[in-house]
Amino acid sequence: MLLRQIHIQCVECGAQQSATEPVSVCAVCGGLFEIDLRLTPLDRGAFDRDTSGGKYFSGVWRYQPLLPRLPENSIVSRAEGRTAIYWDDRIAAYAGLPRVGLKHEGQNPTGSFKDRGMTVGVSHAKAVGARIVACASTGNTSASLASYAAAGGMQSLVIIPEGKIAGGKLAQSIAMGARIVQVEGDFDIALALLRQLTAKYPVYLVNSVNPFRLEGQKTIVIEMLEQLDWNPPDVIALPGGNLGNTAAFGKALHDLHAARLIDRIPRLMTIQAEGAAPFAHYFESGFDRYEPVKAETVATAIKIGDPASMQRARRAIQLTDGHVTSVTDDEILAAKSWIDRAGIGCEPASAASLAGVRKLVAAGVINRDATVVGILTGHLLKDADAVTGYHLGELGGAGRPNVNRPVSVEPTLDALERTLDDALSS
Questions:
Q1: pLDDT at residue 273, as a whole number
Q2: Are 271 and 327 in contact (CB under 8 A)?
Q3: CA–CA dist 231, 107 (Å, integer)
Q4: Nearest C-alpha neighbor of 164 from the set 14, 306, 303, 350
Q5: What does the domain layout of the chain look like in residue ranges?
Q6: pLDDT at residue 294, as a whole number
Q7: Mean pLDDT, the chain, integer
Q8: Which end of the chain is more exposed for a tag (fewer CB within 10 A), N or C?
């Protein structure tokens, strides 16, 4: 049986876990699990698959040699992945670099990177016979779970912090049939409650504590490096919330190096919002002192005060000689305005990548001749309220760039011409 051939072990104590049942925390020490693929060298042609349709059209499952092998009839895929890297001189100039790439995971089916992890997590859930799949979420995970559960014929359960989820994300979860429960408190409380629930009932947990989720999210880096003809950039920058991506990216780079697909490992730089930056504080202490925080930021997708994947993320930063920092909400929104104005667009949390790169270039942490690729994690329309708030003046902050405020005029050609005079005469 394929599932019995998957090796799962605790990252803290090394205890083993069977893949024939739902994966939870380690019963020995309470640590998280990861999947050991026991990789041998691979040829880069291993990913040349038929792209006419089916499973291998997926930008996740075409990398099967670098993923845990699941039964074919359990795969739940929506052609996720295959996202673009955008290169724009205006973005590079803003960052203070000659060239910056932005890999846009908002181009996934439900509009965020979560689809990459969800296809693997839900597929494992289906393989072990789960009827109910569940997550705690600030929005993107719930939208993705609702979609993949519906596609796989399973019931989805979503626990969200009451009143603290962007409307676009909540609408996706509602429309796709998720059972939604709002709880008083923040994301960390929601996840703690869900972990208690899944320990007591046969409900499959698909938050990023699940190692199968991280295997799917690894493919962001795998695909990026394939797009770059396997020439790693100097730096990969990404937003940090629950830190599943930081952990996944570190594992991706470890696995790619073990498979001899790359000969050097780029530095990972995780960027948190200043009001939700426990990992940045932990890094600043030399990974000596960790304290959760009460999270508060306009970037709701990373509004997490006690990241569940923190220790796995720490290993990723240490493996890659990486760096962790935080940026203010004003810095996030300013960076977002440049990404939006370049015609790319993203949700607020995504822009933390560019804001962080700009800060780290100015501080000398990133060399001014470095090659950098940042990750955009979600689509612009995931949080439309943040856009209107920024441009219509509902959000605070001074010196906001690229403000584009609509104007009202009388219904006459003369009034329209006067208003558009600067554009029409240029």
A1: 98
A2: yes
A3: 23
A4: 303
A5: 85-110+213-392
A6: 94
A7: 93
A8: C
Residue 175 phi/psi, 5° resolution? -60, -35
Whether the full predicted model's pTM is greater than 0.90, yes or no, is yes
For 82-101, write each residue's pLDDT tens digit.
999 999 999 999 999 999 99
CATH number belonging to domain 85-110+213-392: 3.40.50.1100
3-state helix, strand, coil in the chain (%, to 5): 45, 15, 40
Per-residue pLDDT, 45: 83
Residue 329 CB burial class (10 angstroms; 0-12, 13-18, ≥19): buried
Question: Could you tell me if 245 and 299 are in contact, meaning their C-beta atoms sit under 8 angstroms apart?
Answer: no
Number of helices and strands in the chain (H, E): 15, 13
Cα–Cα distance between 30 and 284 in angstroms, integer? Answer: 26
| Among 345, 350, 333, CA closest to 389 | 333
Copy the structure tokens of residue 283: 């890094």
Alpha helix stretches (DSSP H) within 182-269: 187-200, 211-217, 219-227, 244-258
Name the phi and psi angles at 46, rounded to 5: -65, -20
